[in-house]
Design brief:
Elements lengths: L4 E4 L8 E3 L2 E5 L11 E4 L2 H7 L4 H4 L3 E4 L2 H10 L3 E4 L7 H5 L7 E7 L6 H7 L3 E12 L1 H5 L7 E4 L2 H10 L7 E4 L2 H5 L8 E2 L5 H5 L4
Parallel strand pairs: 1-2, 1-9, 4-5, 4-7, 5-6, 7-8, 9-10, 10-11
Antiparallel strand pairs: 3-8
Length: 209
């Protein structure tokens, strides 16, 4: 019997029961984009938040993107990419360190973030400015989902795990796959899991036996 696959993500996949793990609310703080040299974008939601502003105000800004998926979203909007990271917030530090400290970066971020790369760089006198443009809350869908005991569970963020565990437990018979190391760390220590070789949903599916 084929195991049911559950994907906990804001994205979907045709071979899985796709459960949106988060409900997103966008903010529109006042931003003078002319003050900044580059963007830091760590999610597709940050790109969506930009669409609340007049495109001509910001579209000339190159963006340092955390992943290829985020970069693709900004390019589809018409933006240009400065560099693309490996999918981890902490890895952005080394990229930013290659640029002069006088450069002014605008980090368009969520209300709650996992990485402290900004604090580290600020101590090194880099000019990182932050603007909170969205927040994430556990979705009703993830709280109410009924999961089969022998299912395959794919988690794509630490928040998707935390939201799932608020109402559910992970059974020993369930196979768990995570999109990256940071996501895996959000699991209870006793839970065994596989990590996708690349930080993409498709790579997660390749880990299924």
């Amino acid at each position: 019997m084929t195991k049911q696959i559950y994907l906990f993500s804001i994205s979907s996949h045709p071979d899985a029961v796709s459960i949106s793990s988060l409900d997103i609310s966008f903010f529109q703080p006042s931003i003078d984009f002319s003050k900044y040299d580059y963007f830091i974008l760590t999610s597709k939601q940050a790109v969506k938040a930009l669409q609340q502003y007049q495109k001509e105000e910001y579209i000339d800004k190159q963006a340092l993107c955390i992943s290829a998926q985020t970069a693709k979203s900004y390019e589809e909007l018409g933006g240009k990419i400065l560099e693309v990271g490996t999918g981890y917030g902490d890895d952005l530090k080394n990229i930013i360190r290659k640029y002069p400290k006088k450069r002014r970066w605008l980090y368009l971020r969520a209300e709650t973030i996992a990485s402290d790369f900004v604090k580290v760089l600020e101590k090194e006198k880099y000019k990182i400015y932050e603007s909170i443009v969205y927040k994430s809350e556990c979705s009703k869908a993830i709280q109410n989902v009924q999961v089969q005991k022998n299912a395959i569970l794919i988690f794509t963020s630490p928040s998707s795990i935390k939201c799932f565990l608020k109402r559910h437990t992970i059974d020993n018979n369930q196979e768990v796959i995570v999109i990256g190391k940071t996501t895996g760390k959000a699991l209870p220590k006793q839970i065994k899991y596989k990590i996708a070789k690349q930080k993409t949903i498709q790579s997660c599916f390749k880990e299924i036996e």
